[in-house]
Amino acid sequence: MGNMFYRAIRAAMFRRWIYRESSEDPETILKSLGLVAFSAISLSLGLMNVVEEGIAQPELMSVVDRLIAVWLVIVVSLLGWIMWAAVVYLVGAKFLGGNANYHQVLRVLGICYGPGFLFLFISVPVLGFFTFMGGLVWVLISGIIGIREVLQIDWIAAVLATTIGWALFAVILPFTIVLPNVN
Questions:
Q1: Are 121 and 132 spatial neighbours (Cβ–Cβ below 8 Å)?
Q2: Residue 59: which pLDDT band, with cuts at 50, 70 and 90?
Q3: Given CA atoms 75, 78, 84, 89 in this order, what sign does their dihedral have?
C-alpha cells in the first residue's frame, strides 16, 4: 500500500522515471486500480458533503443510499479509467505511432490518479470547485507527461491523445451518470 502512494506522489510530482517503471512492472496494475478506487472514494465522499458535515447529520441519506452512491462513483471511475486508456492507446499507439501496449497505458494512467484525493473537497464552499478542477487538471497533466514517456511520442501527440480520453472520463461520464444519481 505504501508503494502505491509512493508511486502516486512521484507521478504527481511529474517524475518521468516513475511512469517508465510503472509501465514495465505488471504488478503495478493493482496499484493503479487502487489509486483509481481511492480517487473515486474521495469523490463520492466529497459529493456527499462528508468533509463539511462530518457525522453530525447522518439522516440526509440512508446508509444504503450512501453505499450505492459510493459504488456508482467507483464503477464509473473505473469505467472512465479503462475508456481513457483505450482512447489513448488507440490514438497514441495505433494512430500516432506510439511504442506501448494497452496494459502499459492503463498502468501509467492509473498511477496518474494520485491527485484525485483533492476530489474529497468538492463540496467545500468557495474553494471546493477550484480544488476539484485543480485535481482534474493535475491528473490530466500527469497523464500527458506519463503518456509521452511511455508511448515515446512528441508533446503535441501526447496532449492530443491524452486530452481526448480525459474529456470522456472527466466530463462526459461523471456529468451524465454520476451527478444525476448521487444527489
A1: yes
A2: low
A3: negative
Q: Cβ contacts of residue 118 below 8 Å, gap of 6+? A: 42, 131, 132, 134, 135, 138
Cell numbers at residue 26, please? 505488471
> Grid coordinates standing for 54?
462530518
The CA distance from 30 to 80, in Å, is: 16
Taking the model in full, what pTM does it have? 0.85
Alpha carbons 80 and 72: distance in angstroms, whole number: 12
**How far, in Å, CA of 17 to CA of 25, rounded?**
12
Q: Residue 5: which pLDDT band, with cuts at 50, 70 and 90? A: confident
Using an 8 Å Cβ cutoff, are 142 and 170 in contact? no
Torsion angle, alpha carbons of 170, 29, 121, 168, to 10? 0
Most distant pair of Cα atoms in the chain: their distance: 54
- Give Cα 58 distance to the centre of its chain: 28
Q: Which amino acid belongs to residue 39?
A: S
Q: In 123-159, which positions are buried (b, 16+ CB within 10 angstroms) versus exposed (e)?
A: bbeeebeebbeebbebbbbbbbbbbbbbbebeeebbb
